[in-house]
Specification:
Keywords: Coiled coil, Hydrolase
Strand content: 15-25%
CATH superfamily of the largest domain: PPM-type phosphatase domain
CATH class of the largest domain: Alpha Beta
Distance between the termini: 72 Å
Number of helices: 15
Largest sheet: 5 strands, parallel
Radius of gyration: 39 Å
Shape: elongated
Number of domains: 3
Pfam family, one: SpoIIE
Organism: hydrothermal vent metagenome
Domain Response regulatory: 10-125
Structural class: alpha+beta
CATH architecture of the largest domain: 4-Layer Sandwich
CATH topology of the largest domain: Phosphatase 2c, domain 1
Strand order of the largest sheet: 2-1-3-4-5
GO biological process, one term: phosphorelay signal transduction system
């Protein structure tokens, strides 16, 4: 297709009368235009494909193809906006209206005034130029939007990969559904294995939607994963996440959140609800406990671990914990009605199959909303306490590349140190850095946790484990522990860790803890295998190669042997 020469506008003159074409071409040349002629509509359509035409002067009544048909074809096939001015001898209103309906942009009746014709041409060319500018801007916007879309998709992929550690599965007892309102989700679910082979799950809901809401997920994810894997108490983890969000987020943004922790060693559920809707413990067809929000959301005010209120409940196998963000209750239907709390509670009451509760809530919510536009991120979480669990995948800190060596560590902690420092994560981090115990890391951490808890709770703080015989007892035990830790003025724990290589390429890790307590008659303790309250020694013994209770019962030594996998 050839272009106009010297930037002159090209006018296509279409008329079956030679005289009319010559007159128009002459007038156009005088006005500074280049003209191309066609005798009928068919030639006009052909000329459009061969030349770059800026405007068309089109007669109506012509042989082979009239102006109406030609205008329709040209408007349908044009690659850019080409104004069409009908020149007609007809004065009938219907005929003139048909000129516009068939694709004409203006009309002029014959005989026409040369000044008026020139004005109409100039006017249409200005409109055409405006169309051209709009099309160019539209093309640039589309290209820019495409580039932004590609970058957003890449960002989303990297974002999701960064925070993902998907442990979901029927055998894991973990299910969740996340439906974002936009490309980026302002809701967040993080899961990680804790040191009891149970799960720590964080569910969060940031203020707002999209990328601005989701950006806080990155620091929260980093803090959650690293501190959970290292064994920090979840209250300490929330303190660190809260500090990060205060530093990162603007003052009007925060994260409503809940931390759900399943202790599989003791069948205990611990929950901190900070601004989320009620969380439900569902057992044998009914809600047996509701965890209401008793803490402020993260990102608002600086907090200490002791300021988080933790609720605890004993668990039975088959128990389900149901949590959600406010998107479930605030989901709208086409009549702008909210799904609401009553509908949610009705599902709990009418459900006859606990295994289908999660899917039923999602299905009822989707059916209620129909095709209504989503107004918020919608997230639903279910955690089931199973007797046997199998997790799909879990990213763990790996130190398999480190070479084993002989080493020893000793710590002496007085009551002030015990009050201020959560020593276990640092001990495990030291072991991780010094020793390639990846395959036995969980066992070692569990052993160390149990030994330290026994020494602190029962030795230094003189707490009675029989307090934990009921759900309320767990709460009372925890509260009393915090109270005594803050008020006791005396007490200490001695910790010794030692590793020695053996001739087979493996080694033995020795853990020795001694507390300042009065000890106990360890030779006459009931060691029923279903009770872990008797200072936890049975659990320690089951995980270690050997365990010894020394002295008056306030000194425990455990041995953990490991070998090299030569397969």
């Amino acid at each position: 297709m050839s272009n106009a020469i010297n930037d002159l506008k090209v006018v296509l003159v279409v008329d079956d009368d030679l005289t009319n074409r010559l007159v128009l071409s002459s007038l156009l040349k005088t006005s500074g235009y280049v003209s191309i002629e066609a005798k009928n509509g068919k030639e006009a359509v052909s000329a459009i494909t061969k030349h770059y035409i800026d405007i068309i002067l089109l007669d109506v009544m012509m042989p082979i193809m009239d102006g109406y048909e030609a205008a329709k074809i040209i408007k349908k096939t044009q690659t850019h906006f080409i104004p069409i001015i009908f020149l007609t001898a007809m004065t009938d209103e219907n005929a003139l209206a048909k000129c516009i309906e068939s694709g004409g942009d203006d009309f002029l009746t014959k005989p026409f005034n040369h000044v008026v014709l020139n004005s109409k041409i100039n006017s249409m060319l200005r409109i055409a130029e405006l169309y051209k500018n709009i099309e160019e801007q539209s093309r640039e916007i589309k290209e820019q939007n495409l580039l932004i879309e590609q970058e957003m998709q890449l960002t989303k992929k990297l974002f999701n990969k960064t925070i993902a550690n998907d442990l979901r599965g029927d055998n894991a007892g973990l299910h969740y559904s996340m439906s974002p309102m936009s490309m980026f989700n302002g809701d967040l679910i993080l899961s990680e294995l804790n040191q009891t082979n149970g799960l720590d799950v964080l569910i969060g809901d940031f203020t707002g939607h999209g990328l601005s809401a989701a950006i806080g997920a990155l620091p929260v994810s980093d803090v959650f994963r690293s501190m959970t894997q290292k064994g920090f108490a979840f209250a300490n983890m929330l303190v660190e996440a809260n500090t990060k969000l205060i530093e990162l987020l603007p003052t009007h943004m925060f994260m409503a959140t809940a931390l759900i922790s399943l202790d599989r060693s003791n069948n205990v559920l611990s929950i901190i609800n900070a601004g989320l809707p009620d969380i439900y413990l569902y057992r044998q067809g009914e809600i047996v406990h509701t965890f209401k929000s008793k803490n402020i959301p993260l990102g608002i005010s600086r907090l200490l671990p002791s300021q988080f209120e933790i609720e605890m409940q004993t668990l039975e196998y088959g128990d389900r914990i149901i949590a959600s963000t406010d998107g479930i209750m605030e989901a709208n239907n086409p009549n702008n009605e909210m799904f609401g709390l009553d509908r949610l509670l009705t599902i709990f009451k009418e459900n006859s199959c606990p295994e289908k509760l999660f899917d039923m809530i999602l299905s009822e919510c989707n059916n209620f909303c129909e095709d209504a536009a989503q107004t918020d991120d919608i997230t639903l979480l279910e955690v089931c306490h199973l007797e046997k669990v199998e997790y799909a995948s879990s990213r763990r800190l790996s130190n398999e590349h480190k070479e084993a060596s002989n080493w020893s560590l000793e710590f002496s902690l007085d009551i002030k140190s015990l009050r201020q420092l959560d020593i276990l994560p640092y001990l495990m981090q030291a072991v991780d850095q010094l020793q390639p115990l990846e395959s036995g890391r969980t066992k070692v951490h569990t052993v160390l946790t149990e030994m330290f808890a026994n020494a602190l709770d029962h030795g230094v703080l003189k707490l009675d484990s029989s307090m934990k015989d009921s759900p309320q007892g767990y709460m009372d035990f925890y509260l009393e522990k915090q109270k005594r830790l803050e008020t006791f003025e005396e007490g200490n724990i001695q910790i010794s860790l030692r590793h020695e290589l053996n001739d087979d390429g493996g080694g033995r890790l020795t853990l020795h803890l001694m507390d300042s307590g009065e000890g106990y008659d360890f030779e006459n303790v009931d060691t029923n295998k279903n009770q872990y309250s008797g200072r936890g020694n049975q659990l320690v013994s089951s995980l270690c190669t050997e365990m010894k209770i020394l002295g008056k019962g306030n000194s425990v030594m455990a041995y953990y042997d490991w070998t090299v996998d030569k397969s």
